[in-house]
Amino acid sequence: MTTTAPRDEQLWSRCDGCSSLLYRKRLRRNLDVCPECGSHARLDAPDRVAQLVDPDSFTPLPEQAVRVDPIGFVDALPYPHRLGAARTGTGLDEAVVCGTARVGGHPVALAVMDFRFLGGSLGCAVGELITRTAERALADAVPLVLVTASGGARMQEGALSLMQMATVSQAVAGLREAGLLTVSVITDPTYGGVAASFATNTDVVLAESGARLGFAGPRVIRQVTGATLPEGFQTAEFLLRHGQVDLVVPRHALRGRLTALLAAAEAGRRVPVPRQEPAPRPAAGADAPAGATGPARDAWETVRTARHPGRPTTLDYLETAFDGFVELHGDRLGADCPAIVGGVARLDGRPVMVIGHQKGHTTAELVARNFGMASPAGHRKALRLMRLAARLHLPVVTLVDTPGADPGVDAEQQGQAAAIAENILALSVLPTPVVAVVTGEGGSGGALALAVADRVLMLEHAVYSVISPEGCAAILWPDSSAAPQAARALRLTAADLCRLGVVDEVVPEPRPAAHGDPAAAAELLGRAVTANLAPLLSVPPATLVRRRRQRFRRFGAARAVDGTGPHDVSRNGTRTEVAP
Predict the structure, then answer these.
(1) What is the largest CA-CA distance in the chain?
(2) Cα 421 to Cα 191: distance, rounded to the nearest angstrom
(3) pLDDT of residue 350
(4) Is 173 helix (H, G, I), strand (E, B) or coil?
(5) Residue environment code for 429-442, b if the CB has 16+ CB neighbours within 10 A, otherwise e
(6) Quick one: pLDDT at residue 266?
(7) Tens digit of each residue's pLDDT (9 = 90 or more) over 201-215
(8) DSSP string spanning 317-384?
(9) CA angle (183, 188, 192) in 5-degree steps
(10) Residue 506: what are its φ and ψ, rounded to 5°?
(11) How far apart are CA 284 and CA 208, in angstroms?
């Protein structure tokens, strides 16, 4: 709603939907839903909490939000200045409000995102707070309710913001294993990394009337495809028709529907869930990954090398680094995505399941493979092969080389966000060893869908990022010509990500790069995967899963207190400071 009266406590508002002039008190009594046209105005997190939970039942979590600036990002303003302005403008410490409450008399752990705070973006601190809320739900054996409103992962925190998709998803996986209900309430808007993780990998997905949900936003889709979007595209009602949400609920009925779900979950529980403690956090500097050697290279030049058309593809590596590849096709839901290839092969004589993005070398090959951008069918095919590998007790090797997931209209209609989210969730609990290698471009959630692994390797001239440099520059700089500057700011090279702890090992390439000697590159990749896979083969499945979760759990924003007050800590390259 757009306020039109600056005096008398803003007594009147104009509806953005029908332009009706509305008496503010009447609008508030109607839960900020226009009584003329039914348009749902956006709510801030405190108002949302007040509407959803029982009176006086909400207790904030004791954890404080922390100041995080992991990569020293600067565009027009230094990132800490943007954070400070957001805190001043919203009165919140971060883009989420977390706590415990009762809804219809039923206890829940609750996390509510606020779009006013940097577009509700998912950064390290937000991921940490939502993860701790999920851990509190597990400890108290109560359902988790997530209310989402976000533009996606926070670009200013680089690949570490991307890691939050996996961090929170793993917390959701823990609740699923414990038999505790998880519910997401989709509000307007929910996009990007949030849509492709915890917003859509809960047990039940509710959408408020008029809410919009998608992996790629309409503007991005128009820019990439030039397509005319169908009426109501990505709205809750559109998503319901395409099977991507369980229910679309008007705001006045939302609390009642939540209460009914919580009551059913409580009645269905037969035995208490054992009380579990959160996974231990590693000490500062513990398990630091091996860093890259050699002179530093310009990030933009590395991006261009990673995109070189002669760079070996997944099929090239399968022909040289692996033996006896038998390709398996189809998602078993009606499609076979050419951008994802997978099947059974042998590595150093051992059977493995290999799944990877496939680009191509010629224009015709790139077009046929959709430039390595997987559709939902591709992600579901990968998911099917991962689960098959677990049933057959085969290790999984993934080869990541994609600009990102398919941003097309068809991909959104077919549930792109949910497909990526499900892969992240499945990899979080897969009871078999997983080694991922970023061989070229590791673009956003489309890359992470194959990269939640026990060991994450990266070729020397590969890149891995929350967004492309061009996309980052177009949003945060005057135009996309600042892509080289954005590439440097994003810290997306193998050496950068090794220092940040996102990558465990950098695999060297022949000179000048893999495209110069593909056979040598394949030999180096095969040796590195074999060496990293070998120690995982004797680890019990439960231990594998626990360690994998611990690996991604460390990407949350840690809160450190030494008894005298908050202080800065450095852990895995992340600078943190407790907010005042």
Answers:
(1) 78
(2) 12
(3) 87
(4) helix
(5) bbebbbbbbbbbbb
(6) 78
(7) 988 888 999 899 999
(8) HHHHTSEEEEE----SSS---TTEEEEEEEETTEEEEEEEE---SSHHHHHHTGGG---HHHHHHHHH
(9) 80
(10) -100, 125
(11) 42
Other Cβ atoms less than 10 A from the Cβ of 51: the count is 14
C-alpha–C-alpha distance, residues 447 and 339, integer Å = 12
What residues form DSSP beta bridges with 571? 574
The whole-model pTM stands at: 0.76
Of 527, 337, 534, 525, nearest in space to 423 by CA: 337
**Residue 233 DSSP code:** T
274-280: long-range pairs with CB below 8 Å, 24+ = 274/178, 275/139, 275/141, 276/138, 276/139, 276/174, 276/178, 277/139, 278/132, 278/135, 278/138, 278/139, 279/546, 279/549, 279/550, 279/553, 280/550
Element (H, E) at 85: helix 79-90
| Amino acid occupying residue 517 | D
In total, the chain counts a number of residues equal to: 580
Query: What pLDDT is stored for residue 4 in this prediction?
Result: 45
Report DSSP letters for 87-154, one per residue.
Answer: HHHHS-SSSEEEEEEEETTEEEEEEEE-TTTGGG-B-HHHHHHHHHHHHHHHHHT--EEEEEEESSB-
How far is the CA of 130 from the CAs of 102, 292, 485, in angstroms?
18, 32, 32
Supply φ then ψ for residue 73, to 5 degrees: -70, 135
Report the DSSP pairing between strands 66-68 and 574-578.
antiparallel
The whole-angstrom separation of Cα 388 and Cα 458 is: 25
Q: How far apart are CA 522 and CA 113, in angstroms?
A: 44
**Exposed, middle or buried: residue 76 (CB in 10 Å: 0-12, 13-18, 19+)?**
exposed
Beta strand 182-191 with 204-208: parallel, antiparallel or unpaired? parallel
Q: How high is the pLDDT of residue 349?
A: 85
Q: What does the DSSP 8-state code read for residue 492?
A: -
Which structure tokens are listed for 548?
A: 């994998």
Beta bridge partners of 179: none
Burial of 378 (0-12, 13-18, 19+ CB in 10 A): buried
- Structure tokens, 531: 């060496």
Q: Is 281 strand, coil or helix? A: coil
- Structure-token pair, residue 108: 């829940």
Residue ranges in the chain modelled with pLDDT below 70: 1-10, 23, 26-27, 30, 36, 267-296, 480, 557-580
Report the run of H or E that residue 412 belongs to, with start and end.
Answer: helix 409-413
Is residue 265 within 8 Å of residue 143, measured between CB atoms?
yes
Among 315, 312, 307, smallest CA distance to 354 is for 315
Q: Which residues pair with 442 in a beta bridge?
A: 402, 464
**In angstroms, how far is the first alpha carbon of the chain from the final one?**
32
* Per-residue model confidence (pLDDT) at position 480: 66
Any idea which residue has 């509510």 for tokens?
A: 112
pLDDT digits (tens, 9 = 90+) for 82-99: 999 999 999 999 999 999
Q: What is the pLDDT of residue 23?
A: 66
192: left (phi over 0), alpha (psi -120 to 50) or beta: left
Buried-exposed string 120-157: b where 16+ CB fall within 10 A, e elsewhere = bbbbbbbbbbbbbbbbbbbeebbbbbbbbbbbbbbbbb
SS3 content of the chain, % helix, strand, coil (to 5): 40, 20, 40
